[in-house]
Amino acid sequence: MNRFQLFKLLRRNNNLAFRRNPAYEQSVAAKVMMVIGGGFMAAYLIFFAVMFSMMANESAEPGMWLMLMPLLMAIDFGVRFGIQQTPMMLAKPYLLMPVPSHSVIETFLITSLLSGYNWTWLFFFVPYCFIVLCGCATWSAALVVLVSGMLIVLINSQWYLLVRTLTQRSLLWWLLPLAVYAAYFVPLFMEADSEVAFFEDAVDAVVEFGSTWWFVLVCAASLVAIFMLNRWMQFRYVKEEIAREQKKPAALKSVTKFTFLERFGLDGEYLKLELKSVMRNKAIRARVITALALIIVLTLLIAYTDVYDGPMMLNFWCYYCFSLYGLTTLAKVMSPEGNYIDLLLVHRENILSLLKAKYYFHVAILLVPLILMLPAIIAGKFSLMMMVAYMLVTSGPLMMGLFQLAVYNKQTLPLDQKITGKNNVENGVQTFVVMAAMFVPLALVALLVLLFDEQTAYWILTAIGLAFTLAHPWWLRNIYERMMQRKYENLEGFHASR
What we know:
It is built from 24 helices and no strands. By secondary structure, it is an all-alpha fold. It is globular.
């Protein structure tokens, strides 16, 4: 079997795996949502292309697009988290078969380069090249822009895979993309005239170099280099995870028992399970640490800088600081428990106690952004009513909506495997609930501010959030009863996706 035949076979197997997935119907709905999102993205790219091409024609610099690319590639890097898997997540089953392992990794890397999302960026480069061709550029310069632009997008896709793989091993690797993309904003803080002049000269040199075929060769060489680095690293780490040996601890010195939770009965026992799952399971722990780290960064950025001082932006980020943890973890609620869901169904209402424990745990997490933003309240940047309103909206309507996913989620998430684990739990209901949770409260605030004043809007939000929060025993029981109605369907999905 040559490499082309292997490529066709693996592509065919991936399509069959998608159709045989227990959540196939929901996955189709998720793909429809992604197509709609892709349409909006294409419209924005065309808008930016027209705007910057007009500026390029005015200044007679067809390479001006390079000034925008660092920002666009930073956005592209973030978008890829929702749509792109690492090859190691897909290659694991084939490494035990009589096919060349490196060829398998290469096939999935090439597939990632040929993904439809990468070619969505043609909606930016084609209009840009056409407009500058009609204005200040030659055919050769326009073709350079088109080819080098797409090469940069492909480099960014491989850069994403590289960073995503490294961050699965250690969260400290997040400092690498932060440093790379933050470097774009460093010149904004330059004060000395000599530094500003040096930066402007450097930008002019890059823009001029970006209009030559030498720049295309540099981009092509960079793509080959990062592709080969990815090939080596993906193969090494996936083999390491598959062949890893469990190390026995020398001596078990102590076990955290959380005895103070025993007074809460069965709910307390499931709170212990929730805490120990975070402490002992690598995949869950990494997800929790990542969410908490993002909360801390966002709260510090919003509370102690003037980056987002507009009224609606302050509302958005204040709400997002409270809701981020729930949006990150509750979108896949009950999926980790799919590993041992059979045991939870042994006794009546065990699942209800588990849901209550999850709810109390997530409400307790809301204290983190609240405490971090208290100095900002004292300084007058946020009002106390705004903070209380968004915290109660998060603990009430937001969590009630996210907990509904416990009824529909039926794909098991691994507890320890992070690189080759099956992390594709996305479904149509999940996408709809998460999008509604992100934007409906803010739309409600905007409407209430139009009808009343800002303070009255926060009082109304506080009343709504408090009502849903106090009513949590009733809506959690309703979720539990609906889960029991779908018990056998969900069990089949959990078993099939382990």
